Amino acid sequence: MPSHPRAHRRVRTVGVARRFIVEADGGSRGNPGVAGFGALVRDADTGAVLLERAEPLGLASNNVAEYAGLLAGLEGALRLDPAPDIEVRMDSKLVVEQMSGRWKIKHEDMRRLAGQCQDVVRRILAGGGRVRYTWIPREKNKAADALSNHAMDGKTIDREPGKSQPPATAAAVPASTAAVRVSSSGPGASGHPRR
């Protein structure tokens, strides 16, 4: 007896993108000054922290540090999933408005970092993911702010909670090396002083 024509038809399950919240912050002690960034990726459904990054930048403006934090957060989300649905939350109105396309990016260092962020966003979009930006008040960005302060204190953090990881280490990043990577010659005010 012949089998039913649909008996061997494959069922295709369409994957649902993982939903992430990227919280990012950057700061400098002086503007420009000793700078660092912090970024974390949360599961949007549970609030669990999936990834944390913090890194000293040497001498840079607070806005350059904010962009470096955004880049680290986007790259971290992409590392966890090739096509995530991301809501970026930052207390930098400047970065949120510039990345949303509503404000121009005038400073060269910020244009370069914004371009790197846009490259990561294009990869996320090409994979079927989504990225949107939300400004939040500084008091709602405490976790990323704490990470950026650790970075300004010279600590590097790159961990995925839940995985066995070494503790955070103090970074030996010469200011001249970091300055080449994310140097800033402009004032880069973002509307609020950084610690």
From TrEMBL:
Pfam families: RVT_3
UniProt region (Disordered), positions on chain: 146-195
Signal sequence bounds: none
Protein keywords: Nucleotidyltransferase, RNA-directed DNA polymerase, Transferase
Source taxon at top rank: Bacteria
Domain RNase H type-1: 16-153
Keyword set includes Thylakoid: no
Start-end of Low complexity biased regions: 166-185
Molecular function via GO: nucleic acid binding; RNA-directed DNA polymerase activity; RNA-DNA hybrid ribonuclease activity
Protein name: Reverse transcriptase-like protein
Organism this protein belongs to: Candidatus Phosphoribacter hodrii
